Amino acid sequence: MLLFLNAHSKEKLVTLEWKFNGIEAGYDHLNRSKIYIDGKELPISKSYHQSEWGSYQLSLTKSPHTIKLVNEAFYEGRWREHTFENEFSIDAVCEFQLNGKGISKVQIVFDLNSKPTSITRFDKKGLEIKPKPIVFKGKHLPLVIDWRFINIEPGFDHLSRFCVYVGDVKLFTSTEFLESAGGSFKVMIPKGEHQIRIVSECLRNSIWQEHTILNDFSVDVVLEQNMVVSKAQKLKWVIDLNNESTVVHWTSK
Fold first, then answer.
1. Residues whose CB falls within 8 Å of the CB of residue 43, separated by 6 or more in sequence, listed in order
2. Contacts (Cβ under 8 Å, ≥6 apart) of 149
3. What does the alpha-carbon distance between residue 68 and residue 91 come to, in Å, rounded to a whole number?
4. What is the pLDDT of residues 199-229, one digit of tens each?
């Protein structure tokens, strides 16, 4: 859909594009998208194959707007929302903030192999707009993490690594080790009160996935808590795949 604006309009055109990755042979369905701006539904998009870029043009002011895209797939002779509820493999639905200032295009990639949906913005020159990295100022204190998996079934000794988040910022990714070997690493955590998230990722089918029940692993290897970081600390973490449990032990240095 194409909208025309006069030369004095305060609204700008932004192109919204979407496609799918990880499509199995024979399942390149036709799809279309319902678009909402601040809760108001726009006319539905044209239909495209999942392997090609779908396209829709929005007319936006410079103020922030909430954009929602709900994808529909044409399957077994009818259009259905592309959701788990309708027995598809992912929820092809996303919502984000957008305005017409300095942005020419937004690309959305849905992944049928359970990778997170990606949303990429482009400026007026067609260059990708990358978020500015968040830098934690002030003193940082060491956190040492020793981890190991026990009672691993034969054939399931995955490569594993750990990621450490402070708030929404991925601060550190550890070296990779086999689960049976375990590992140890040190990360410098900014002093103060923070929401800390430490999660194991495993390499399965050539894809790094968080070791969670949601991703069809036997146990959630995730530690998430609010922490006051005031001194160096050490965490020993044992993941028992037989009892489907984890044991954590904190010590201060």
1. 1
2. 160, 179, 180, 182, 239, 240, 241
3. 13
4. 999 988 777 889 998 888 889 999 999 989 9
